[in-house]
Specification:
globular, Rossmann fold, alpha/beta
Length: about 260
């Protein structure tokens, strides 16, 4: 079977400061990137312990880059630059989606490095009046194509969020959040053991985890920003409704038309 891993840096063990994620400084960012690669690699190992012939794509979902392709073992590296998760799902014929290194949505209490797509700009995303973060939005994309989301690793608040959308999902907690930039972490080894075991259990149980279809078309996306809107997606879109200087809304019947 074929699996797509959506990865991010903020949920990896040992990462709990925006100084580690909003930079390209290898001294600040490097340790977290190496840990994320370890977590991706053990996730792949867990998948293959149940499905030896698995084909696995690892998507680098961190804006400034969260992975070095040469650090990965047992999967193909894919950058999101120039493509979208929707397009990858559409073209990839995947059987399941997994998340590694995931954080909670913007505004989540005591969730380390919580944000939705942009930690500097976005206050919230809502689809049909349901608040969603990156997990919920991408679970919806996958579900619209019949692809179940079976696993998430990251902080405890991200795991709780995932279970809210996908009650049967398997999770592995790498840290317990105590604030926006504060967490109690598992060691690298402990996190990797938890992720490998969780991924294996997820694959063994995937037939019992249905795709997420809790939000149905038509889809109304509302995005509120911390500052006045400058994103050309909104300022130049003929069908976008500018609710106020920081809030925009768009209704579509096709999820590919939304910035998810």
């Amino acid at each position: 079977m074929k699996y797509i891993l959506i990865t991010d840096l903020e949920g990896a063990a040992g990462v709990d400061s925006f100084r580690q994620t909003r930079t390209n400084d290898p001294v600040a960012k490097g340790p977290g990137m190496r840990q994320l690669a370890l977590e991706v690699n053990v996730c792949c190992a867990g998948i293959r312990s149940m499905d030896p012939d698995a084909v696995i794509d690892a998507v680098d979902g961190h804006g400034t880059g969260g992975l070095h392709s040469e650090d990965l073992i047992g999967c193909r590296y894919i950058s999101l630059i120039g493509t979208t998760v929707y397009r990858l799902l559409e073209e990839g014929s995947y059987d399941a989606m997994l998340f590694v290194g995931q954080h909670a949505m913007a505004g989540t209490v005591a969730a380390p490095l919580n944000h939705t797509y942009s930690s500097l700009d976005v206050m919230y995303y809502r689809i049909n009046d349901t608040f969603v973060g990156e997990f919920g939005a991408r679970a919806l994309l996958a579900g619209s194509m019949g692809v179940p989301v079976i696993f998430l690793s990251g902080d405890d608040k991200a795991a709780a969020e995932a279970s809210m959308f996908v009650p049967g999902i398997e999770t592995a907690i790498t840290k317990r959040g105590r604030g926006t930039e504060l967490a109690d972490h598992l060691s690298s080894e402990e996190a990797c053991i938890a992720i490998r075991g969780g991924a294996a259990r997820a694959v063994s149980r995937m037939s019992g985890i249905p795709p997420y279809t809790g939000i149905q078309a038509p889809y109304t996306l509302e995005v509120r920003y911390y500052r006045p809107i400058v994103d050309p997606f909104w300022t130049s879109h003929p069908d976008a409704v500018i609710v106020d200087e920081r809030t925009a809304r768009l209704t579509v019947s096709d999820l590919s038309l939304l910035p998810l």
